[in-house]
Structure formats: C-alpha cells, structure tokens
Known about the structure:
globular; alpha/beta
Amino acid sequence: MSGSRLTPVDLVRQLSADPLIAMITEPESPAVPRVTEELGKAGLRAVEITLTSPNALRALSESVATEATLVGAGTIRDADTVKRAVDAGAHYLLTPGVIPEVLAAAGELGVPVVCGAFTTTEVMEAHRLGAALVKLFPARMGGPAYLASLTMAFPDIPIVPTGGITADDLAEYFAAGAHAAALGRPLIGDSLRGGELSGIRERSHALLEVARSSRPGTP
Length: 219
C-alpha cells in the first residue's frame, strides 16, 4: 500500500480492524506476488513473507509493488537484514524471537516490529524494547489456554499467536484475547504450488469472520 510510512500505532490499529496476517513461507514460489495481490483483494490487510530463501527479498519487493496490502518481512534476525528488508519496501518486520539489535535498527528507521516471544519475560522484554506487537511463537506449544494467561497478565500488550494455528482452533485463540493471528495454509491453500487462486477469497472471508466474531464481548 502506497503513502506515508506505517507507524507502530497504524499497524496495531490495522490489525485490530483486520485481524489476520497471511504467512507466505515459500518465498521462492513465482506465484508470491499474485497470491499477495489476491489476499489483498480478499480483505487481508497484512501479509508476511519470510526471508528464508535467496529469492525472498525480490519476492517481497514485487509483492509490495502490487500495492494490494501491507507486506511484512519475516524471520528477521539481524540489523543488516532490517536494512535490506526496508530497502526492498517492507512495511513492517517480524522476528522469531527477542533480538535487541533488530528492534534497535528498526526503531532508528521508524519501522514497526512484530517481535517473537514465548515466556512472560520475553513478552515484557519485547514490549520494553519497542515492539509494536508481540508474536506468541510457537503458539501451538501453549495453545489458547496459555495465550489467555498472557493476555490476562498483559492486557496492554497486543499479542499475535503464530505457528500451528488452524481453521478449527482459530476461534479459541481470539476468545483467549488474541489481538490478531497469523496463518499460512488455512488462508493460502496450495496456491503457491500451482493451485488455484480462487479459493483464497472464500477462505479469507470465512476466517476473518471467525476472528472478528470470536473476540470477547462480541455479540
């Protein structure tokens, strides 16, 4: 999406309104830009492209160029990669854990970070170091009950469970207080491996409805 640089507050608000992040973990697929564009058309306002292959930055740049949605660079582990991801157009960054040099570098550039954490200590440290949101990873290791304990302890910290979430348990994570959630195949299906793009829209609409309707206090 074009325009002024995304701020941490912007990202938190966007994910409150549209609370799913679509994870693209096969950045070497030539279909990545088309899938990103289709996700944007389906109402997904945030996509993560993991930087896990030599082609990932090019895929990220081409996806940003579609202007279909916010595109984040995932699996950021050092300050050099922060700069390269931002130069490629990343709107925001995601880390697998609490990495102070990444948060510092991103802070200098004014780029929001969704920082990976699992323990209470890590959640507090990520927040202290300036993370816009905290990514509970891997979420399936604790499940919705563990997330509920974290959101009760830290009601002021927006938490995004990631890793192993399915269409079947998505509602439980939002009932437990998730600010947003990140999913891969439940949204994307096999579209990165030559599958049809047509199913993305139906899956996205259905899962967005589940997410929004499962939050505490939703009538």
